[in-house]
């Protein structure tokens, strides 16, 4: 699960975004893209000292200004379960449908492993040598 | 480190996944957590993250949880040796006890840096080019 896929999976979830200048924005994620640009709704913004607050209905944050995002702890487990389920579905459709072998199966395996596939790749490399 | 992997972000960090890591950010924050994922920009996903602050021979932790850190802000990522982790000659105290000392240390450092840059740029005529002000 790549960091940006996790962010994608966090849509509609509450999160805290800290910007490089130390300001923070608390809100629910509406949308995000591959540059980490995000839109939040019902935002509480604080200045870098944390002593002034603003409430915004909606805001857009350019990805390059972000320091980090804090997301709900439960999200990682939820996404893992979702992946397992997706893999199960992928396996069963691959088994029955003759049309979708190969192309769809391979990326599924790669996405599920989290670290595993890379080690697998390395193992193969060493075997050749 | 396996020499067959080229020196890329992915090649270097693959062995760190699911390990307890220390991350130092450009703003000086020190985060301890389990590295769950990363990408080619060194964006990191840290689980069960705590922030640690230090003052003299004391340290304190504050719980933060799940972090997604934008790679640009990372200075250092290091693995924590779980066998030796508890041997450090530091004493843990409550976060709220240590925080004021930590804050004043940061404030003092800022004052020093301001004084230094005042001398360099205003009196000695050095140029400010490219400096982001935090030494990185």
CATH topology tier name of the largest domain in chain A: SH3 type barrels
Globular, elongated, flat, extended or rod-shaped: what is the shape of chain B?
A: globular
Succession of helices and strands of chain A: HEEEEEHHH
Q: Cα-atom Rg of chain B, whole angstroms?
A: 18 Å
Number of domains of chain A: 2
Average pLDDT of chain B, rounded to a whole number, is 88
Distance N to C terminus of chain A: 30 Å
CATH top level of chain B is Mainly Beta
Characterization of this structure:
The complex is a heterodimer of chains A (129) and B (136). Chain A is built from four helices and five strands. Chain A has 129 residues and is α+β, with helices and mostly antiparallel strands. Chain A has two domains: 3-72, SH3 type barrels; 73-111. A five-stranded antiparallel beta sheet of chain A has the order 4-3-2-1-5, with no helix packed on it. In chain A, helix 2 (74-96) packs antiparallel against helix 3 (105-113). By secondary structure, chain B is α+β, with helices and mostly antiparallel strands. Chain B has one domain (9-123): SH3 type barrels. Chain B has helices at 9-13, 95-123, and strands at 20-25, 30-38, 44-55, 58-69, 74-79, 91-92. A six-stranded mixed beta sheet of chain B has the order 5-1-2-3-4-6. The interface between A and B is medium-sized, with 29 and 27 residues.
Question: How would you summarize this macromolecular structure in one to three sentences?
Answer:
The complex is a heterodimer of chains A (129) and B (136). By secondary structure, chain A is an alpha+beta fold.
